[in-house]
Each structure stands twice: as structure tokens, then as C-alpha cells.
Design a protein that fits this description.
- Pfam families: DBD_Tnp_Mut, MULE, PB1.
- There is one protein chain.
- With 617 residues, this protein is α+β, with helices and mostly antiparallel strands.
- It contains 19 helices and 23 strands.
- The strands form 6 sheets. The protein has a 7-stranded mixed β-sheet with strand order 15-16-19-18-17-20-21. A 5-stranded mixed β-sheet has the order 4-1-7-5-6, with helices on one face.
- Helix 12 links the parallel strand 20 and strand 21.
Length: 617
């Protein structure tokens, strides 16, 4: 997905001073640059900043100035704030961001107790070395102080080997000495990181590129060094020099504050595969127990996101694959419609899917009744799932179509969804749509499905009533009003409706007025012109929504495919069940018909005209 990109110059450690004109000037501190775009999530950005400045993600606030205004700092605290900031500075290549932190947010490792006595970790001679087989013939430069990267993690565990965390014990020999070979620089770095965890020391990179790595112990004066470089004409990395003696006392041991995302991901990936709901707080506890490393919540969350992407594929790539995915869906399911649209910047906008099996089943076997509802997705890029479901012959949920839209707050999303639904439904009879009246659907339904009806969802109507009246009633009073409101909705004659409304008026004249103005012709049986088959709420399709909720953390293509699989299973299982039916109607409907028939025994039937009868109790 294409995105608006901007360079954020993040500054921390300085202070603001007010100029004569009232503008704030930032002086001192450090600065780092990071690429951001309008698709970046706030938590990702916050963790990235925390790692850059070595501060706790939960103990900082992020501020910026609006263009042309240096007097008021604006806070970034969620995804929308971050997106607005990118939008406001869309005409500028950079934006200044200020990181304000609490005094205790910066880790102080100087007072941490020593966790390792001085020792030689390996038995090979200290000065053993091999000549580099490539262009790198430099000796380890002990005078070089440029730090490219600090060792990310060192455990807080006892110096006694028998107390080492179980998980770290297996890493004590990941580095064995001079001559050891690795398939890539990445493999060497990972092995070195694990080795440092197992032997409880911190290190820093002095050279770190695609063909050579030079590392020293982080403690000043400690002689521990290692140097590895690429073997000539190969991708193999070989340890060429190593001084394995430590003279430090472990005073530089830290928590896992700088734990790399990739390291956390590599640790949890297999468990995440078996337990998709593996929570960040459980990751924190498990890694502390297994490896003696204390992570914070955001490190665990970020590592989980990386592991999920490694297991499931890239979320961004999934969006770019949507056109091809839609094409293959329609190719494999003739008569179906799968289509997606993008915004002006080529980022994702909307996706609509309706399978031929669903369309054929609705038109041939369902009543002309469609429930419209939506759920917010928890996926990385959020969005909203819009769904159209129907009731099958046994009053079970029957999915008709669904969409994923990026503009759920706009009525345009529903309007677009109904346009696509209209294009695939060939039925000529009027359809009753049961939906929330607050989604701007009234106009769209009337324009797109001429002659159809919009029945307001009674549950949403009730919820809105008490929201608008702002909680002025006790729970007991609310219960009585809900009973009267539902009785008014189910009443078959205007007289019955009015009697129920009078009961509400005695409780609250304000509630009575609100209900009268809520367009009863769209929800009360005695006035509604369409047929809703006794279905009064739009949340009929909860089974379908649960499928989406179970899959909404997957990349969009996998989520759609998971829903497709559920629809397929539903159709197959219901066919198997209905094949056993021996009655004309479904067994549950036959039983319902019998119960209703028994109630007629006490009725007196009077003939009004040749073809009209009146039943009296």
C-alpha cells in the first residue's frame, strides 16, 4: 500500500525556552531521525522512539507543533493523532517531534549489582586468530569508540551457573571460538546475542556491516573482544579473532529494555503458532522465567507483531495482493463478486465480497429480509467489517455479502456497500432491511433499493434512547420502559401501540416525546409497511461476526479466506442436516406452526366478506 511518508526528527533530553514573541524554542538534547507514514500505528512509533532514546515507552509523552504555530504543543496519544500529524505536515519533508520523559524513565545501570564474577569464558588461547579471507585485514581497533549498536539484552539472574534460567543454558556454547563458521552475518549476530545472555555480559558493536562484525565488552577496560568476517567468495562468516577473557564484574548488566524485536519474535514464534492468543503480558512473564530477562509490555507486543508477520505474512503485502486475490476468488467461484478500491494515494479503501453460493441461496431459499450490521476490526490497520446476513428456512444465519472499509465513520462506506449488493442481487421483490437508524442508511436504502423498506433495529433504538436521555433513570425504571417499548413495537394495531406509549408517558414525558419522534413507522409493527417476519433487531448475524472477530488479526487476504472457509463449512453442514428432514418445512418451523395452530382452538371466527374473516378471542 502506498503511503504518505515524512521524516520525523525526534528530539529528547533538551528543554523548552520561551522567546520574546511567545514562541517555544527547544535547546539541547539528542536527536534521531525516523521514517513514518500515515499507516504507521502509534504503538509501533512509540516503541521505536523508546528504543532509540533508551527510555521506557510507558513513561514518555510525544509532542509536536502545528505548522506556523510554535506556541502550543500538540500531544500524540493514539493512531488518529499520529495520522493527523502526518497529514498536517504533508507538504513538508520533515517534522520536529519532542519526547518528554519522566526523570526515572532513563535506565540507570550504574547502580545495578554485579551478576558475574571475573572469569575466562572459553579455554582457547586469548590471542588466537585467523587471517581474514576477504578484503578485511584490520586488527581489532581498541581505540575506536563509535558505537553502532548496543547489546540489547542481558539477564538479571544469579551469577551461579546452577541458577541460570533454563532457556539461557542452551546458549552457553553458541560461540565456541576462532574458526567457527556461520551461514550469514545475521546468524552470527543472533548467536552472539544468545551467548551474551547465557554468560551475562553486555557488548557493543565497533564494526557492523554485511561482511564483518567487531564486538567488544561494554565494560570499560574489559579485554573481551571478538571479530568475524566473510570467507572469500562465499557468504559464510568465520570468527577470525577472539579474546575470551572477561575482567569486568558485570556492572553493565541491564534489564531487557533494549531487547530487539527480532530476538523476542524468534523466542515466541513457535508458541505463538500453537497459541495465537498469546498475550504480551504472558510473553513478559514467560521470558523472565525462561531466560531471566525482564521485558516491558511494548517489547513483548512488538516482538509478537514481528512473529505474527513471520508466521502469517506481511500485512502491507496482503493489501497489495488484494487485486490478484479478488481475481482468483471470482475465478474459483464463478458468479461471485470480489472487488477492491483504493484511495488517491493508492492506499486501501474498500473491499466487497459476495459468493455465488450465498447469492443463489438467498434468492432461492430465503425470505426477502436482510440484516445490516458492522463490527470494528482489531487488525493492524483496523477498519470495519460491514455485513449483510439473512435468515434461512430454519431461522439460522445465512451470510449474503460482506465488506471491509477504511472509512467506517463516513456514510459513504455503507452507500458503496449497498451499491455493490444491489449489483449482485437480481430479486425483484421488495426487501426489508433491518439496521441501525444511525448509520445514514435510510437515504441510501431508499435510493438504491427502490420500493424496499428500512426497519430500525429495536435494540439500537433502545440504547440510543437512554444515551440521549443521559442516564436519568434507575435500572428498575429502565427495565419497565424497555418492556413497554418492546410491547409497543410488537403491537399489531395502533390502539395497542398507543396504550403502551401511554404507559411510558406516565414514567417520563421526555422519553415519550423522544420515542414519538423516532419514526415509529420504521420500527412499530402497527405502522411498518414492510414485512420483517418478527425479526426486530439487526444483530441477528452474530455467528457471522464471530467468524470475523476470530480472524481479524490476520492479514486481510487471510481473514477473507478464513471467512470463506467458514461459509463453505456452514453450507455443507446445513445441507447434511436438511437432507435428513422429512417434513415440508424445517422441523423447528413445523413445531412452531403446530403450537400456533393449537392457540387457534379458542378463537371465534366470523366471516366479514366472501374472502375475509375476523378471528376474535
Amino acid at each position: 500500500m502506498a503511503a504518505t511518508k515524512i521524516i520525523a526528527i525526534c528530539q529528547s533530553g533538551g528543554k523548552f525556552e520561551a522567546g520574546k514573541d511567545g514562541c517555544l524554542l527547544y535547546k539541547g538534547g539528542d536527536a534521531h531521525a525516523i521514517d513514518i507514514d500515515n499507516q504507521m500505528k502509534f504503538n509501533e512509533f512509540k516503541v521505536e522512539v523508546a528504543e532509540m532514546f533508551n527510555i521506557r515507552a510507558d513513561a514518555m509523552s510525544i509532542k509536536y507543533f502545528l505548522p506556523g504555530n510554535k506556541k502550543t504543543l500538540i500531544t500524540i496519544s493514539n493512531d488518529k493523532d499520529l495520522q493527523r500529524m502526518v497529514k498536517f505536515h504533508g507538504n513538508s519533508p520533515t517534522v520536529d517531534i519532542y519526547i518528554l520523559i519522566e526523570e526515572l524513565a532513563i535506565l540507570d545501570v550504574s547502580n545495578m549489582p554485579a551478576s558475574r564474577s571475573s572469569r575466562t569464558t572459553l579455554s582457547e588461547p586469548v590471542n588466537t586468530c585467523l587471517p581474514d579471507g576477504d578484503h578485511d585485514t584490520n586488527q581489532i581497533d581498541t581505540s575506536m569508540d563509535i558505537v553502532h549498536e548496543v547489546s540489547p539484552i542481558v539477564p538479571l539472574i544469579s551469577s551461579n551457573d546452577e541458577k541460570f534460567a533454563k532457556g539461557a543454558q542452551q546458549w552457553q556454547n553458541t560461540i565456541t571460538g576462532v574458526g567457527q563458521r556461520f551461514s550469514s552475518v545475521h546468524e552470527f549476530r543472533e548467536s552472539l546475542r544468545k551467548y551474551a545472555i547465557a554468560h551475562q555480559f553486555a557488548f557493543r558493536y565497533k564494526k557492523n556491516d554485511s561482511h564483518r562484525v567487531t564486538v567488544k565488552c561494554k565494560a570499560d577496560g574489559c579485554p573481551w573482544r571478538i571479530h568475524a568476517s566473510r570467507l572469500s567468495t562465499t557468504q559464510l562468516i568465520c570468527i577470525k579473532k577472539m579474546n575470551s577473557t572477561h575482567t569486568c564484574d558485570g556492572a553493565f548488566a541491564t534489564t531487557g529494555h533494549q531487547a530487539t524485536r527480532s530476538w523476542v519474535a524468534s523466542i515466541i514464534k513457535e508458541k505463538l503458532k500453537d497459541f495465537p492468543d498469546y498475550k504480551p503480558k504472558d510473553i513478559v512473564n514467560d521470558i523472565k522465567q525462561e531466560y531471566g530477562i525482564q521485558l516491558n509490555y511494548f517489547q513483548a507486543w512488538r516482538g509478537k507483531e514481528i512473529a505474527k508477520e513471520q508466521l502469517q505474512g506481511s500485512y502491507k503485502e496482503a493489501y497489495s495482493q488484494l487485486p490478484f486475490f479478488c481475481e482468483k476468488l471470482m475465478e474459483a467461484n464463478p458468479g461471485s463478486l470480489a472487488m477492491c478500491t483504493t484511495k488517491e494515494d493508492s492506499s486501501f479503501d474498500r473491499l466487497f465480497v459476495s459468493f455465488h453460493a450465498s447469492l443463489h441461496g438467498f434468492q432461492q431459499g430465503c425470505r426477502p429480509l436482510i440484516f445490516l450490521d458492522s463490527i470494528t476490526l482489531r487488525s493492524k490497520y483496523q477498519g470495519t467489517l460491514l455485513a449483510a446476513t439473512a435468515a434461512d428456512a430454519d431461522d439460522g444465519v445465512f451470510p449474503v455479502a460482506f465488506a471491509i472499509v477504511d472509512d467506517a465513520e463516513s456514510d459513504d462506506g455503507w452507500h458503496w456497500f449497498l451499491l455493490q449488493l444491489k449489483s449482485v442481487l437480481s430479486t425483484s421483490c421488495p426487501i426489508t432491511f433491518v439496521a441501525d437508524r444511525e448509520k445514514g442508511l435510510k437515504t441510501s436504502i431508499g435510493e438504491i433499493f427502490e420500493g424496499s423498506f428500512h426497519a430500525y433495529c429495536l435494540q439500537y433504538l433502545t440504547e440510543q434512547l437512554f444515551r440521549d436521555l443521559k442516564g436519568q433513570f434507575s435500572q428498575e425504571v429502565k427495565r419497565l420502559m424497555i418492556e413497554d417499548l418492546y410491547a409497543a413495537a410488537y403491537a399489531t394495531k395502533p390502539e395497542g401501540f398507543q396504550n403502551c406509549m401511554e404507559s411510558i408517558k406516565k414514567i417520563s414525558a421526555e422519553a415519550y416525546d423522544w420515542i414519538i419522534q423516532s419514526e415509529p413507522q420504521n420500527w412499530a409493527n402497527s405502522f411498518f409497511q414492510g414485512t420483517r417476519y418478527n425479526h426486530m433487531t439487526s444483530n441477528f448475524g452474530e455467528l457471522f461476526y464471530s467468524w470475523a472477530a476470530d480472524a481479524d488479526e490476520l492479514p486481510i487476504t487471510q481473514m477473507v479466506d478464513a471467512i470463506r472457509g467458514k461459509i463453505m463449512e456452514l453450507i455443507v453442514s446445513r445441507k447434511a442436516i436438511s437432507d435428513q428432514w422429512e417434513t415440508k418445512l424445517s422441523p423447528s418451523m413445523e413445531e412452531k406452526l403446530k403450537r400456533e395452530n393449537q392457540k387457534t382452538n379458542s378463537l371465534q371466527v366470523l366471516q366479514s366478506t366472501c374472502s375475509t374473516y375476523e378471528a376474535q378471542i
